[in-house]
Amino acid sequence: MEILWFYIAVFLAVSDEIHSRIMWGLFADFYILLAGVIKESVASNIRLWIVHEGLEALFHFVVLSLVFLAAGLGVVALEIGILAALIHMTVDMYHEYSGIELNPLGHRCLHFTIESIFFILVFAAGVPT
Q1: What does the DSSP 8-state code read for residue 129?
Q2: Would you report the helix, strand and coil content of the chain in percent, each value rounded to 5?
Q3: At what angle do helices 104-124 and 4-21 cross, to 10 degrees?
């Protein structure tokens, strides 16, 4: 359990790749239509972007919670799912807001580094595993 932070960061990276491939590969047309519907509902690009990040965070919450529930972590799996979704969304929002241009590998490295440090700090604080 000492390297649980590593597993979380890896599965979060895998979850992000799955999300990208599903949404932009299999359901690209639906994703574009959904964005149009959401944009009409929220009436601004910034709100559209925040809703998008929220839906992506929900996806990561579900995936990580299921993975760690299957690993036998019980209620802690839900906490991991919530924290993983929130830190991923925070990194995405900061990255977009800051205007830093990164290639896909650089973007993935940024996420992995920040998310790893976050979970190292969380588990160092004594969160039960």
Answers
A1: -
A2: 85, 0, 15
A3: 140
| Among 116, 126, 125, 124, residue whose Cα is nearest residue 5 | 116
pLDDT in tens, 39-87: 888 888 888 888 889 999 999 999 999 999 998 888 889 999 999 999 9
How far apart CA 18 and CA 21 sit, in angstroms, is: 5
Phi first, then psi, for residue 74 (nearest 5°) are 60, -135
pTM (2 decimals)? Answer: 0.86
CA distances from 52 to 4, 27, 31, 48, 78 (A): 28, 15, 10, 6, 21
Q: How sure is the predictor about 1, in pLDDT bands with cuts at 50, 70 and 90? A: low
pLDDT tens for each residue of 2-36: 789 899 999 999 999 999 888 878 777 887 888 88
Q: Is 44 left (phi over 0), alpha (psi -120 to 50) or beta?
A: beta
> What single string gives the DSSP state of each residue in 20-35?
HHIIIIISHHHHHHHH
Cα separation, 79 vs 93, in Å, equals 21
